TrEMBL record, chain A:
Top-level taxon of the source organism: Bacteria
Record-annotated membrane-spanning stretches: 12-33, 45-66, 78-95, 124-142
InterPro entries referenced in this protein's UniProt entry, alphabetically: DUF1468 (IPR009936)
Protein's name according to its UniProt entry: Tripartite tricarboxylate transporter TctB family protein
Keyword set, alphabetical order: Membrane, Transmembrane, Transmembrane helix
Residue ranges occupied by any DUF1468 domain in the UniProt entry: 17-146
TrEMBL record, chain B:
Keyword Membrane annotated: yes
DUF112 domain ranges (all copies): 19-436
PANTHER family, sorted: TRICARBOXYLIC TRANSPORT PROTEIN
Segments traversing the membrane: 20-47, 59-80, 116-138, 145-165, 171-193, 200-217, 260-279, 319-340, 352-374, 386-402, 408-424, 429-444, 464-484
Keywords: Membrane, Transmembrane, Transmembrane helix
InterPro entries: DUF112_TM
Signal peptide positions on this chain: none
Record carries keyword Transmembrane helix: yes
Species the sequence originates in: Pacificibacter maritimus
Protein name as it appears in the record: TctA family transporter
UniProtKB/TrEMBL annotation, chain C:
Keyword flag Signal: yes
Organism field: Pacificibacter maritimus
Alphabetized PANTHER family for the sequence: BLR1237 PROTEIN (PTHR42928:SF5), TRICARBOXYLATE-BINDING PROTEIN (PTHR42928)
SUPFAM superfamilies: Periplasmic binding protein-like II
InterPro entries attached to this UniProt entry: BUG, Bug_dom1
Name by which UniProt lists this protein: Tripartite-type tricarboxylate transporter receptor subunit TctC
Record's signal peptide: 1-21
Length: 152, 496, 319
């Protein structure tokens, strides 16, 4: 219970905290690049500036989060996030190896399941229709350099 | 001049050329509607076709694809918050809220009209002032670009609706994304964690992820039906007389500023529309409406990016130097046809030069004519229930991003930016400044570093060069104003 | 062995041979290059790909993998399957990169199969019209005030950049080298007067010279160039021994089978003999020149030697 409460209190600050982490990442890696001098700037000059800017603005927005905490009233859509990730990752995994149509099929099916309103039967019919549409549009109308089935 | 223009019209009206002009704009329009499949992809795909055409016809067709795609780009932004190009990111800002309020038809009508008016202003400037504009553009060296881009970054904070600190943080984040990849000035790799990142982050990935995908993640399974246009009568689509009157200013300002930015090699439509948005928000009497469906916020930038699309041909056609990758493709097509582009193009190939310019006018009329009736069709698309629409949107994003440069890594990056976009919104950070930082950051770095190299680290160039001085002055004004208003706000808060 | 079989075998072999050759290519060939669309490499790739698609009976698709002077594409190709479906349109930058980078993720000689050169072209030294009398004048001014003459180039580590460094090295003058994002941006800078000199391909310099905006002071080839015989060589004016020729060529990952190399080599010989291709390559400012795989390899190896010396002597920072 207690940890839950603590989480709720810290939650509004996550965004700004993430920015500060990102700033540390930029500075940490960017420090490895040579900064050069003003007339002959090295690749590390701007990353340092950007890193400090990110750190500064992140800290300022953290301050405003602390003084004026605002929690988003919508809940975090874990289910949507998970299925969208699954859908796009399978597309990425299949497009090179299996071709456009299989990638489309699995990806669209996974995306459709994200919405619990969709039934199995309608999902199947719908997915097949989308595959046909994608095949027609990308392969035949646009003639993109993709293969419908198998490796390109 | 009129005589030349008539020569151009004559060239375009030749049926064998006219057909390709029409084909070009229609393909461009279609490609533009499909987010992610940008003008470059379309032009690269069609480049082999031009091997069999003469130079004039090739350029007219390729140009049609380019500015046609500028028209189409707004449609997915308005209906689905899905921008395929950085300039359509600006269209999302006020276009999408309008669609959510059930005014998609009106938004599309205003977009089509603004695009048309903007293009006409751009074409007019190309016809009347191509040469002076190109001479002016040559006055822009590294210090001018550096100060202009700096001004643009400041304008980014005006685009956001929320706190300035937060939007500045987002600009910095965007600049960081822009730094990833190989450094132009030294060739060194920066933040390249896997070899596929060496080319840097794809703009399409970033835009479609932050905007389109973030929106999808938020909306799936929402019981609340989206507001739809119940009837699509002409009355619902047309703006009221008062609204129309209010659009004259944004259109002229957008068309004018867009023409200016377009003519500078290396800036282009994206900066034009961001700047136009900032200008409109600044001059508006109701800036609080921006981001919630302000007509001026839709119309001004739309006019600007289309005007820029036309004037970006100025350096290419009058100087023979391409301003961006799309223009480089056009030059490539010219060279292949034995036409060496250069300052002599206008005198050596008047039929080509003026034919291309006249085709802009014809092409825009065709685009306007096909877009108006299509509004009905697009609005009907929104009636598709969201649970049937979003899987297609996800597919369009994956396939569009993939086809952009055949990279699986880009698809995965898009997903990461989608998640980021969703999370950012939850913590009241806006995505538009990220995009602007991403586009402008590397330009600022490149030009600032070059300025320092050229002038031996002398900062006074930013004040002594007249054009620089103007931009530096404007930037100083913006900073002073925002400090002033913050202080004012602080006082007001304390007194309450 | 029965008579039937004895007759059948050669027939089978005869049948089998074309079947083998016809095996490749049986699907789309991807022709990669390391530069943006519309650039020289892209255009050459498209010209060749168009004809190869017809000759080989399979689509040859041009794909751009830009980044770090083309090394991103070279890295990609060096690690691609040596099945002949991933090829590279190589440019002179391949040898430059080998000299410039401390640690390339590939070996510029051993990780590649070199099939045939396509075109060879020199660069031209261009200035704003009327800015200098000739090469000697420019070099004299540079010597008088070291670092006052600015050379704009298409990017750090580009052949254009190193050509500028070589000019400084051989002429003994000190220049300030300013990197731009590609040759077009450098041209714009020269037009606007931000830099004094650019050394770049004929496509970006000669059109301007014809219009009278640029003066062409010299050509980088060791001997005067065929279709620009009035332009003196840099070697005969200010920098003896100056000889820079860039090239385009077709290559692939190491370990391509002899059959594939033979098929591609024959196809290239056919394509390069086509008048339409020769015409287009010439329009791009290059001399169409097909070669054998061996000649191509020798060219690359010699150039790597030259550029390694330039990088070392000019003190260009390696990466």
């Amino acid at each position: 219970m207690k940890t839950g409460k603590k989480f709720a209190r810290l939650e509004p600050m996550f965004g700004s905290l993430a920015l500060i982490v990102a700033a540390c990442f930029v500075l940490g890696i960017g420090w490895g690049y040579s900064a050069g001098k003003l007339t002959q700037m090295g690749p590390g000059y701007f990353p340092r500036i950007v890193g400090f800017a990110l750190l500064g603005f992140g800290a300022l927005s953290l301050y405003s989060d602390v003084t004026n905490p605002t929690v988003s009233n919508t809940r975090f859509e874990w289910r949507n996030l998970a299925f969208v990730c699954a859908s796009i990752l399978t597309f990425a995994a299949l497009i090179d190896r299996a071709g456009l149509v299989p990638a489309t099929f699995v990806s669209v099916a996974l995306a459709t399941i994200a919405d619990s309103q969709n039934s199995v039967k309608s999902t199947l019919i719908y997915t097949l229709c989308v595959c046909l549409f994608a095949w027609g549009l990308f392969i035949h109308v646009l003639e993109l350099p993709l293969s419908a089935f198998g490796r390109g | 001049m009129l005589e030349n223009f008539l020569l151009g019209l004559n060239t375009v009206m030749d049926p064998s050329v006219f057909v390709y002009a029409v084909v070009g704009v229609i393909i461009g329009q279609l490609i533009g509607v499909l987010p992610g499949i940008g003008a470059i992809t379309a032009i690269s795909l069609l480049l082999p076709v031009t091997f069999h055409l003469d130079a004039t016809t090739s350029i007219i067709m390729l140009a049609g694809i380019y500015y046609g795609s500028q028209y189409g780009g707004s449609i997915a932004s308005i209906l689905l918050n899905l921008p395929g190009t950085p300039s359509s990111v600006v269209t999302c800002l006020d276009g999408y809220p309008m669609a959510q309020k059930g005014q998609a038809g009106k938004a599309l009508f205003i977009t089509a009209t603004s695009s048309f008016v903007g293009s006409c202003i751009g074409v007019g400037i190309v016809i009347m002032a191509a040469i002076p504009m190109s001479i002016f553009a040559l006055k822009f060296g590294a210090p001018e670009y550096a100060s202009l881009v700096f001004l643009g970054l400041l304008a980014a904070t005006m685009i956001a609706t929320g706190s300035q600190i937060r939007s500045l943080a987002m600009v910095a984040l965007g600049i960081f994304f822009g730094l990833i990849g190989s450094d132009i000035s030294s060739g060194a790799y920066r933040f390249v964690l896997i070899p596929e990142m060496a080319d840097g982050i794809s703009l399409v990935s970033l835009a479609m992820g932050l905007f389109g995908l973030g929106e999808v993640i938020k909306n799936i399974g929402q019981k609340k039906r989206r507001a739809i246009d119940v009837k699509i009568t002409l009355k619902d689509i047309l703006p009221s007389r008062a609204e129309a009157k209010g659009l004259v200013g944004p259109l002229l300002r957008g068309g004018g500023s867009g023409s200016f930015f377009g003519a500078l090699p290396g800036t282009g439509a994206a900066i034009a529309s961001f700047m136009a948005y900032a200008i409109e928000k600044r001059v508006s009497k109701t800036p609080e409406k921006f981001g919630k469906g302000a007509l001026a916020g839709l119309s001004g930038p739309e006019a600007a990016n289309n005007a820029a699309a036309q004037t970006s041909f100025i350096p290419t056609l009058t100087l023979g130097v391409p301003g961006d990758a799309v223009m480089a493709l056009m030059i490539g097509a010219l060279i292949l046809n034995g036409v060496i582009p250069g300052p002599n193009l206008m005198t050596n190939e008047p039929a080509l030069f003026w034919g291309v310019i006249a085709s802009f006018l014809i092409g825009n009329i065709i685009l306007f004519a096909i877009n108006l009736p299509l509004i009905r069709f697009w609005v009907m698309l929104i009636r598709i229930p969201y649970n049937k629409l979003y899987p297609i949107v996800i597919l369009m994003i994956s396939a569009g991003v993939y086809s952009h440069r055949n990279s699986v890594v880009d698809v995965i990056m898009t997903l990461m930016f989608g998640v980021l976009g969703y999370v950012l919104r939850r913590y009241r950070f806006e995505a538009a400044p990220v995009l602007l930082g991403f586009v402008l950051g590397p330009m600022l770095e490149e030009n600032f570093r070059r300025t320092m190299l050229l002038y031996g680290g002398d900062f006074t160039v930013f004040l002594t060069r007249p054009i620089c001085a103007v931009f530096t002055g404007l930037a100083a004004l913006i900073i002073a104003f925002s400090i002033f208003s913050t202080v004012q706000k602080g006082k007001a808060n304390r007194s309450v | 062995m029965s008579i039937k079989l004895r007759i059948a075998l050669p027939i089978l072999a005869a049948l089998a041979a074309p079947v083998f050759a016809a095996d490749y290519p049986e699907k789309t060939i991807r022709l990669y290059h390391g530069f943006g669309p519309g650039g020289n490499a892209d255009t050459v790739a498209r010209i060749v790909a168009e004809e190869m698609s017809q000759g080989l009976g399979q689509p040859v698709v041009v794909e751009s993998k830009p980044g770090a002077g083309g090394t991103v594409a070279s890295d990609f190709i060096s690690k691609a399957d040596p099945d002949g479906y991933s090829l590279q349109l190589m440019v002179g930058g391949h040898s430059v990169a080998a000299a410039l980078y401390n640690e390339l993720p590939y070996d510029a000689k051993e990780d590649f199969t070199f099939i045939s050169t396509i075109g060879k072209f020199p660069f031209f030294a261009a200035t704003q019209a009327g800015a200098f009398d000739d090469m000697a004048d420019l070099v004299a001014q540079a010597k008088e005030k070291p670092g006052s003459i600015k050379i704009g180039h298409a990017g750090v580590g580009s052949t254009q950049h190193l050509s500028g460094e070589l000019l400084g090295l051989l002429s003994g003058a000190e220049f300030l080298h300013i990197p731009y994002k590609g040759g077009a941006a450098a041209s714009t800078a020269l037009l606007g007067g931000e830099v004094d000199l650019m050394i770049d391909a004929g496509t970006s310099t000669r059109g301007q010279a014809e219009a009278g905006t640029f003066d062409i002071l010299g050509v980088t080839s060791g001997e005067r160039w065929d279709d620009a015989t009035d332009v003196p060589t840099i070697s005969e004016t200010v920098a003896e021994g100056y000889d820079v020729l860039s090239w385009t060529g077709l290559g692939g990952p190491a370990g391509l089978s002899d059959d594939v190399v033979a098929t591609l080599s024959a196809e290239m010989a056919r394509v390069m003999a086509l008048p339409s291709v020769q015409e287009k390559i010439t329009a791009l400012g290059a001399k169409p020149s097909a070669s054998t795989p061996e000649e191509f390899r020798t060219l690359v190896e010699t150039q790597i030697g030259v550029w390694t010396t330039v990088v070392k002597d000019a003190g260009v920072e390696k990466r």
